[in-house]
């Protein structure tokens, strides 16, 4: 059954955009999204709100979230849905994302034209085992992500030498949003040991 | 102002053609006329708003002559609405102007008319009288226009 979209498309869209902007400019800081969406499963409210805000008729979306979510997105965002990850401007991944090298990473002349990955995870919290550093972070931010696909961080780190090309990632869980822009360096602390090995 | 009834595409399914007809009638009916008709109709089911009602602009395209290239004539104000009934039926409406209540009521009627159980009563109470009134107004308009038509028969006979 079709679910409603934003109650107030303008104000809700603006507040969600502000949250995504905060999240991307301060990587690792978790933002709350309060637009009361009831999207179809398996979408979380935050994932749905981010896509409704960012996707429109000019941004092809790749989705792995099933027919109900695709229909909901097509109706409310009006975005074309594509089958090939390489042609998408936004990629919605509720499970393992497509191979990162298949995604459009922009060109050296226009790196801003690359795709953005909206990755839905089980939960997000500040101050976890992932240590984030880079632009927008004074010293180091900690981020706790539950449900990150296997080998995802290694695949993301492998894209770093391609800079300025790269992939910006928006992490969504429940009503929370955090971002990993292409410039952020992520190191995973070992869970049990306190000594970092060189 | 009454407009001629549009002819549905020839390959449309009968269901689609019927829906196109009532949607066209609803789109041409103002809020006051709609409410007056609904006073004598069975009550409408409860609904949830899916999108809107919201107002925007639609580009009208024209064509100069039969074989001229299309051009953008102007924009017009359109209000659209989509509602859902408890059973999941979705109704849509696009109406000219900025009347949000009219768009919502038209969308709700579109949803209710898709239910075969409610359709006959609603068609008889709302759509058919409105369609008749619109056809009558269109006929009166074209009669008025026809009365001022100039017949150049003198030129034809002179040749």
Task: Write up what this structure looks like.
Chain A: One of its GO terms (molecular function) is lyase activity. Chain A: It holds the Pfam family PhnH. The complex is a heterodimer of chains A (198) and B (159). Chain A is built from four helices and ten strands. With 198 residues, chain A is of the alpha/beta class. Chain A has a single domain (9-180), classed as Bacterial phosphonate metabolism protein PhnH (Rossmann fold). In chain A, helix 1 (9-25) packs across helix 2. The longest helix of chain A has 17 residues, at 9-25. Chain B contains five helices and three strands, in the order H-H-E-E-E-H-H-H. With 159 residues, chain B is an alpha+beta fold. In chain B, a hairpin with a 6-residue loop joins strand 1 and strand 2. The longest helix of chain B is centred in the C-terminal third of the chain and has 29 residues, at 119-147. Chain B has one domain. Chain B has a three-stranded antiparallel β-sheet with strand order 1-2-3. At the A-B interface, loops of A face strand 1 of B.
Any key phrases for this structure?
heterodimer; A: 198 residues; alpha/beta; Rossmann fold; seven-stranded mixed β-sheet; three-stranded antiparallel β-sheet; disordered C terminus; B: 159 residues; alpha+beta; 25% strand
What is the total domain count of chain B?
1
What is the averaged pLDDT score of chain A? 90
Q: N-to-C terminal Cα separation of chain B, in Å? A: 40 Å
Helix content of chain B: 40-55%
**Major β-sheet of chain A, in short?**
7 strands, mixed
Q: Which regions of chain B contain 5 or more consecutive residues with pLDDT less than 50?
A: none
The CATH homologous superfamily of chain A is termed Bacterial phosphonate metabolism protein PhnH
The CATH class name of chain A reads: Alpha Beta
User: What oligomeric arrangement do these chains adopt?
Assistant: heterodimer
Report the order of strands and helices of chain B: HHEEEHHH
What's the alpha carbon Rg of chain B, rounded to whole Å?
Answer: 19 Å
Count of all domains of chain A = 1
Q: Biggest sheet of chain A, strands in spatial order?
A: 1-9-8-5-4-2-3
Summarize the largest interface: chains and residue counts.
Answer: A-B, 8 and 9 residues
């Amino acid at each position: 059954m079709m679910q409603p979209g934003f109650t107030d498309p303008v104000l809700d869209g603006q507040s969600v955009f502000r949250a995504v902007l905060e999240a991307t400019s301060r990587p690792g800081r978790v933002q709350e999204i309060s637009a009361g969406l009831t999207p179809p499963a398996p979408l979380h409210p935050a994932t749905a709100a981010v896509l409704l805000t960012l996707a429109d008729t000019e941004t092809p979306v790749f989705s792995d979230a099933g027919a109900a979510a695709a229909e909901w997105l097509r109706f409310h965002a009006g975005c074309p849905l594509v089958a090939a990850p390489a042609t998408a401007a936004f990629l919605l991944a509720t499970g393992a994302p497509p191979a990162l090298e298949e995604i459009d990473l922009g060109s050296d002349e226009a790196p801003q034209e690359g795709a953005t990955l909206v990755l839905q995870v089980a939960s997000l919290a500040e101050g976890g085992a992932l240590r984030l550093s880079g632009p927008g972070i004074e010293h180091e931010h900690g981020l706790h992500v539950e449900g990150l696909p296997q080998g995802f961080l290694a695949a993301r780190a492998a894209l770093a030498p391609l800079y300025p090309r790269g992939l910006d990632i928006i992490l969504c869980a429940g009503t929370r949003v955090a971002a990993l822009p292409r410039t952020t360096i992520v190191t995973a602390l070992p869970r049990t040991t306190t000594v970092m090995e060189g | 102002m009454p407009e001629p009834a549009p002819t549905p595409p020839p390959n449309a399914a009968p269901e689609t053609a019927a829906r196109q007809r009532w949607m066209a009638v609803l789109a041409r009916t103002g809020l006051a006329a709609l409410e007056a008709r609904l006073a004598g109709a069975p009550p409408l089911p409860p609904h949830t708003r899916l999108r809107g009602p919201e107002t925007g602009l639609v580009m009208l395209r024209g064509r100069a002559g039969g074989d001229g290239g299309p051009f953008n004539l102007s924009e017009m104000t359109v209000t659209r609405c989509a509602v859902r009934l408890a059973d999941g039926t979705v109704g849509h409406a696009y109406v000219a102007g900025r009347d949000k209540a009219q768009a919502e009521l038209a969308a709700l009627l579109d949803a209710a008319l898709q239910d075969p159980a409610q359709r006959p009563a609603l068609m008889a109470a709302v759509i058919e009288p409105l369609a008749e009134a619109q056809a009558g107004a269109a006929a009166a308009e074209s009669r008025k226009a026809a009365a001022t038509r100039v017949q150049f028969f003198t030129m034809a006979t002179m040749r």
